Amino acid sequence: MSHPFTTERPLRVAVIGSGPSGVYAAEALIKQTALPAEVDVFDRLPTPYGLVRYGVAPDHLTIKSVTRGFEKTFSDPRVRFLGNVEFGKDLTHHDLKAHYDAIMYTVGASGDRRLGIAGEDLGGSMSATEFVAWYNGHPDAAAREMVLSASGVAVVGVGNVALDVSRILLKTVGELQASDIAPHALEALANSPVKDVWILGRRGAAQAKFTTKELREFGELSEADAVVKPQEVAVDEASEAAISDNVVKKNLEVLRDFSSRTPEGKPRRIHLRFLVSPVEILGDEDGHVSGLKVERNTLDDSGNAVGTGETEVLPVQMVLRSVGYRGVALPGVPFDDRRGVIPNTEGRVEGRTGEYTSGWIKRGPSGVIGTNRKDATDTVAHLIADAGTLPVAEQASRADVDALLKERGVDVYTFADWQALDTHEQAQGQAQGRPRAKVVHKHEMLGHRQK
Ligand SMILES: Cc1cc2nc3c(=O)[nH]c(=O)nc-3n(C[C@H](O)[C@H](O)[C@H](O)COP(=O)(O)OP(=O)(O)OC[C@H]3O[C@@H](n4cnc5c(N)ncnc54)[C@H](O)[C@@H]3O)c2cc1C
Predict the structure, then answer these.
(1) Which residue ranges in the chain fall short of pLDDT 70?
(2) According to the model, what pLDDT value does residue 238 have?
(3) Which of 107, 133, 209, 221 is the most exposed place for a label (fewest CB within 10 A)?
(4) What is the pTM (predicted TM-score) of this model?
(5) 15: CA distance to ligand 1 center in Å?
(6) In CATH, which of 3.40.50.720, 3.40.1010.10, 2.60.40.2000, 3.20.20.120 is domain 11-110+326-413?
(7) Phi and psi at residue 291, in whole multiples of 5°?
């Protein structure tokens, strides 16, 4: 492959978004040996790591240890982190084309899907996305006043995010103390009157998307019993024999175990319900959720849910919809509005030269952290294969980019700044017997800098 890049003038790539897909893309770019490369990873937030910090449940700390590998990538002199720089606001597509030979969009999928039923805009009805952002201390949600006055909560959806939000609602302060949940959320949850949480799946237990380890945790909560209706997890012998997926088999085992238990009389309960669809969120005269009407379903031969017309009302005052994340369009970048992704062929952005994508904004919001590693490595392989045809940028130096950002008054947060904040958060947490006490306001984050 012939290309113009040299050690003095390496391939310069701008990666937009420092979540797993962005960091794995940077890692793949410096690990490949076909040509010298230099990477600037931008994020609109001062903090790196995307949903590892702001999505992954605060009580699943071992999962977050993946960031140790990410630190290695950022400590390589060929990679820079430029936090607090938003694509589309602080830097445009035009700016990046002038300063980089290639652009990689790895902005994730920060929007959410709606249920499309009456009552969705009532007070107390929101997306799990918003709730997760709030308890994880995302700066966009830091100012949000979250009133936790519900004794009953319905969580619509049967993926791992539904399990996460339900578990966080049901854990005691003692249990949450060991997590890195945002301080304001710990305080609010300590005073939460929640007694019953219903997780609702439209289809059967065999179609649920969660993983067994996360499901099992509901059998181990100190203050909550797991409640499952035996008839909702019953699968006939022929269908059971046809299940080839091991995760589904294990999930059914766990759910049947829950259904055979006699509740221990703990003060809280998690109800795992299947074959029910929400049809209307009911409201009181103050415009607040007062119940959720659901319809029972059966499954047709293709495994689709079919309503029976039989309804019941769940006594809830809060409804969290957890029915999927959705990509958001970036200014000046093609967008497939139907799928909520940047249209691409194996990571090459459609109709563009020198522009690539990876992660949730490339393939849609599914897959665990590790899925993004292969995904990013595959896209980088295409970028490297294209190196001879890339439009070579004219103002291609770090100093040019720094000068532009300075001229625009952008307060860039470096990786060393983030490390100072990281140390501060851990020290604050330890003083309170916790692993970390997150700083949630952007202006406060920006106050912690490398000395
Ligand atoms: C609630 C939740 C819990 C999860 N739990 C787990 C788990 O336990 N284990 C697991 O393996 N996976 C988990 N996942 C999945 C995992 O988080 C994703 O696979 C992964 O984060 C996707 O990576 P990404 O880089 O594509 O997107 P993201 O992680 O979303 O990163 C995107 C980054 O782009 C930045 N960005 C967005 N717009 C701009 C812009 N205009 N300019 C600059 N920067 C921008 C964002 O600030 C963000 O930092 C969870 C996901 C969610 C939602």
Answers:
(1) 1, 238
(2) 67
(3) 209
(4) 0.96
(5) 14
(6) 3.40.50.720
(7) 175, 165
